[in-house]
What does this fold into?
Amino acid sequence: MKISELKAGASSVEIEATVVEKAEPREVITKYGKRLNVARATLKDDSGSIVISLWEKDINSIDVGDKIKITNGYVSEYKGTPQLSTGKYGKIEVLEKGSGSVDADSMPQEDEFAE
It folds into this structure.
């Protein structure tokens, strides 16, 4: 399945995509008063991109640049935009580790800009 095919309400979603962005986790309080950490990440394949909600243990399981596989995910809608989640029964598997964030060694050093 491709990201462009994902619509709100879809379940049993299985896709492979690359993590292109990952936000810092934030704490939320559920309707039952439980405190949980959640972070948003953006996944991309050759057809498009989608936001995924990462809860608790999933937050540290993936990094920017990783190619991942989502199994048994579902798509909901948040503020009018489709959003992917693994929920209680879904799974995230890292197929190929990426470089993390931008490689500092490939960035120009400050002294390279001096005249």
In short: The first strand starts at residue 13 and ends at 22. Residues 27 and 37 are 4 Å apart (CA to CA).
